[in-house]
Input
Amino acid sequence: MAVCADKREIRYQFVGFCGSAHDMRIYNNLPMASQTSKLFSPGEYLLADSAYTTAACIVASYKKPAAGAMSTDNERFSRYHSSARIRIEHTIGILKGRFPSLRALRIEFHDKKSHRAAVDWIKARVVLHNMLLTDSYYDDN
Output
């Protein structure tokens, strides 16, 4: 899970759950989830896709109703919401473009030590990604 700012800086990352884990399960296990009053000021929130549940600091996109079309207001909200939220998709794409090893991490997990090595590998690439954002040679903005 990653949280990014509008300039493609990754502000928060959590690595360690398997890829099949549900997004809300991962979020609910984050230290961030239990400290929202410390981390978010009134009016601050995260934009999330429809796999998340809307909460005090999470604004999830609308799920399509089972029957009938969405209201015009909901459609407009979803359009603005998705255009802002696409920034995380671009950020992850840039990250994987800079570090192709993240597309298919070739580390076998045998124990906690090998799992830790994979987590550290990913976190190091995120740190490097953020550092490269300030390098004019890699100006992606």
